[in-house]
């Protein structure tokens, strides 16, 4: 049963936490599940969910109602009465303008200075927490949406590659002879890359992993992959790779190009948050690959690791198929939403307690995630 959000409870009731309906094209995930709605209620929050917000992830309105949330038809009124708004991707500027002044917005917001959404947040004095800015520390792991969603993306990328490839992945011994296993290379050994390696191994492919950070060798090998050592190290700070020098990059490219001539499938995952994806696979490398080879470029959303990637499309160049899928985590909306929602709950638990909202700006997770940035000591 949908309710009117303007009919608020007593003034002493806890903060209103609203779950927005996603508006980005193709987005099926939801920022809270019935499970996390119950947990928010246990913190003293009054949870209100936009009707049909969870349908893309197969969470019915009735499930939210049974979890103690109010299901609301009028999303404008929902946003206008919420103290905290949860989302997967940022609402449009027009929706932010309907939020009540001083509200809190939590999600993957991708805010840029001077953008319409950033200006709307400033005008409404909204406290925004773009979760992609969360420090990647041990304490933050339970809140890390980048990692949880990357795991789903890496899994789906290998399934796409298996569908596009004109070859079996595993070795098969048949009456028609022995079929050799496909040789698959995963570029980038972050969460998405490691999940891709594990998935490809389960499908029976002969798997290699490449990353310019030498410390990833042990992780790749622990999953049954072979570490591809091209003799170039770009170990950096904070678990991310540093920029290569021109000479290092040229040598890496030369050696990688030679190696790709024997590879059947590439899953490319190299990305640095907030920056364009590094270009690793050149058009010349693609030209040297075997006809029937497949590249699945997980970095398509930020420009692609392959020079020939077309975001959102499958392209064929010289007999090589290059896929540029977008928002792969949304294709596994049920489990992706469950993980995302738990990440969000763990984060908002930092400031929703005892039926109220209070920020401890000495907490580095809050201080370093909030937008615009502020000093943790302020």
UniProtKB/TrEMBL annotation:
Swiss-Prot/TrEMBL catalytic activity: NAD(+) + NADPH + H(+)(in) = NADH + NADP(+) + H(+)(out)
Domain of life, source organism: Bacteria
Species per Swiss-Prot/TrEMBL record: Lysobacter korlensis
Pfam families: AlaDh_PNT_C (PF01262), AlaDh_PNT_N (PF05222)
The EC number(s) this enzyme carries: 7.1.1.1
Domain named Alanine dehydrogenase/pyridine nucleotide transhydrogenase N-terminal: residues: 18-153
Family to which this protein belongs: Belongs to the AlaDH/PNT family.
Protein name (record): proton-translocating NAD(P)(+) transhydrogenase
Gene3D superfamilies attached to this UniProt entry: NAD(P)-binding Rossmann-like Domain
Residue span, Alanine dehydrogenase/pyridine nucleotide transhydrogenase NAD(H)-binding domain: 162-324
Region listing for Disordered, in residue ranges: 1-31
Keyword list, A-Z: NAD, NADP, Nucleotide-binding, Translocase
Feature: compositional bias, Low complexity: 1-20
PANTHER family, per database record: NAD(P) TRANSHYDROGENASE, PROTON-TRANSLOCATING NAD(P)(+) TRANSHYDROGENASE
SMART domains: AlaDh_PNT_C, AlaDh_PNT_N
Functional summary from the UniProt entry: The transhydrogenation between NADH and NADP is coupled to respiration and ATP hydrolysis and functions as a proton pump across the membrane.
